[in-house]
Write a structure and sequence with these properties.
With 110 residues, the chain is an alpha+beta fold. The protein contains four helices and four strands, in the order αβααβββα.
C-alpha cells in the first residue's frame, strides 16, 4: 500500500464548542506566584477567573487554558492572551479583582 492510500483515509474532524472566547494564561507565571488573587492569597488567576465566569453566568462561554511560558515574564503578575485578539498581551498583577481581569481580557459580557 502506498503512502497516498494511507493518508487518503485520514480526515480532519471538527465539532462545535460552546466557547465564544479562549483565554491563555502563562502557567509558569502562575506557578511562580503560587496564588495571590484573593485576600487569602491562596487562589490562582485561573481559579478566580473561572469563579467570576460562573458568577456572571458565562461559565461555558469562555475557556481558560494554562500554557507553558509565553516569553514575557512580568514581576508579580500573570501573562494572559485572548486567543480572539492575539495582538494584545496582558500582565495581570497579583490582587487584581477577578471580574476586572475578566472584563479586560475577555471583554464585557454580550
Amino acid at each position: 500500500m502506498g503512502l497516498n492510500a494511507v493518508n487518503s483515509k485520514r480526515e480532519i474532524h471538527t465539532r462545535p464548542t460552546p466557547w465564544q472566547s479562549i483565554i491563555l494564561l502563562c502557567g509558569e507565571c502562575a506557578r511562580k506566584l503560587d496564588g495571590g488573587y484573593r485576600p487569602e492569597k491562596d487562589a490562582t488567576l485561573r481559579s478566580v477567573m473561572r469563579m467570576a465566569l460562573k458568577d456572571a453566568g458565562r461559565r461555558r462561554d469562555v475557556r481558560i487554558i494554562e500554557t507553558g511560558c509565553m516569553g514575557i515574564c512580568p514581576k508579580l503578575a500573570v501573562t494572559a492572551v485572548n486567543a480572539n485578539h492575539p495582538g494584545t498581551i496582558f500582565a495581570v498583577p497579583v490582587g487584581t479583582p477577578p471580574a476586572e481581569a475578566l472584563k479586560a481580557i475577555a471583554g464585557p459580557s454580550s
